[in-house]
């Protein structure tokens, strides 16, 4: 597994077109391009898991202790993807639209609510596909009434509780067999902002990794997983202060890890 050593320039912008390719959806003109993986053949559904602050370097450091993400990156691919923003909201909007921040124009939570840009879950739902979004409350509110399953989680609750709740709701949503699922985990980023140090980051990452294991075991075997960070660490002593900025991106077929 030396994908990172012979790396073509992948980007977070490639996530939406890659998911669209698997789901058989046409996207409007966007900035990314689909990554066509043989491993995605036979997959009908997409589970996109966004992990806040999962920079590429950070995942490489954590990976020896993260059994589930490590297994997925071995059966699938672990890529280094160019980050489009150092902030959560515009980065997630780019992940979900395939557009650069200057093209989607979503820079804060209010902008996300007002935007008329169609993101992947809306496009999938408009094509009659069942979708689930499990996200921080403000992000989830954008999808209320537009897609089938929406679960908002307040980010005021302790981060471990947020991530456990995201895991529980994601597994519950997967029982409905959505074509597209988008789920979001917050613990690593919160741990960094709370100044919990390396041990705190490790603990948060371990919890998220256990959640991913549970989610993969719950998803059916036609599910393609895309796990990615929104930006590299953007605060605290581990903050990356100069480019290039990369996030981790794992692409793998579910259940294949067994
Ligand atoms: Zn973030």
Fold and architecture overview:
- The chain has 258 residues and is an alpha/beta fold.
- The protein has one domain (3-253): 3-Layer(aba) Sandwich (Alkaline Phosphatase, subunit A).
- It has eleven helices and eight strands.
- The protein has helices spanning 15-23, 56-62, 67-75, 88-97, 101-104, 109-114, 120-126, 137-141, 159-174, 187-193, 197-218, and strands at residues 10-11, 45-51, 77-82, 131-136, 149-153, 180-185, 223-229, 246-253.
- It has an eight-stranded mixed β-sheet with strand order 1-3-8-7-2-6-4-5, sandwiched between helices.
- The radius of gyration is 16 Å and the shape is globular.
- The model has no long low-confidence stretch (mean pLDDT 92).
- Zinc ion is lined by residues 52-53, 88, 189, 230-231.
Describe the protein's topology:
Blueprint: E1 10-11, H1 15-23, E2 45-51, H2 56-62, H3 67-75, E3 77-82, H4 88-97, H5 101-104, H6 109-114, H7 120-126, E4 131-136, H8 137-141, E5 149-153, H9 159-174, E6 180-185, H10 187-193, H11 197-218, E7 223-229, E8 246-253
Parallel strand pairs: 1-3, 2-6, 2-7, 4-5, 4-6
Antiparallel strand pairs: 3-8, 7-8
Bound molecules: zinc ion.
Zinc ion binds near residues 53 and 88.
């Amino acid at each position: 597994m030396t994908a990172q050593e012979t790396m073509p320039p992948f980007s977070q912008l490639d996530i939406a077109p890659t998911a669209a390719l698997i789901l058989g959806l046409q996207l409007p003109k966007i900035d990314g391009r689909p990554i066509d993986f043989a491993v995605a053949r036979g997959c009908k559904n997409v589970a996109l898991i966004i992990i806040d602050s999962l920079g590429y370097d950070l995942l490489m450091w954590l990976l020896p202790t993260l059994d589930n993400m490590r297994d997925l990156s071995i059966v699938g691919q672990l890529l280094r993807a160019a980050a489009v923003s150092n902030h959560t909201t515009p980065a997630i909007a780019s992940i979900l639209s395939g557009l650069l921040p200057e093209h989607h124009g979503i820079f804060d939570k209010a902008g996300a609510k007002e935007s008329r840009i169609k993101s992947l879950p809306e496009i999938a739902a408009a094509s009659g596909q069942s979708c689930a979004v499990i996200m921080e409350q403000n992000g989830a509110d954008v999808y209320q009434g537009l897609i089938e399953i929406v679960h908002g989680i307040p980010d005021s609750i302790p981060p471990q509780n947020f991530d456990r709740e995201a895991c529980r709701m994601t597994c519950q949503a997967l029982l409905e067999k959505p074509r597209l699922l988008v789920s979001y985990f917050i613990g690593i980023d919160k741990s960094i902002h709370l100044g919990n140090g390396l041990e705190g980051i490790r603990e948060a990452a371990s919890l998220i990794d256990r959640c991913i294991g549970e989610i993969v075991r719950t998803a059916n075997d036609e599910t393609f997983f895309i796990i990615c960070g929104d930006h590299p660490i953007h605060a605290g002593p581990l903050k990356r202060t100069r480019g290039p900025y990369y996030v981790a991106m794992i692409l793998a077929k579910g259940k294949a890890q067994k």
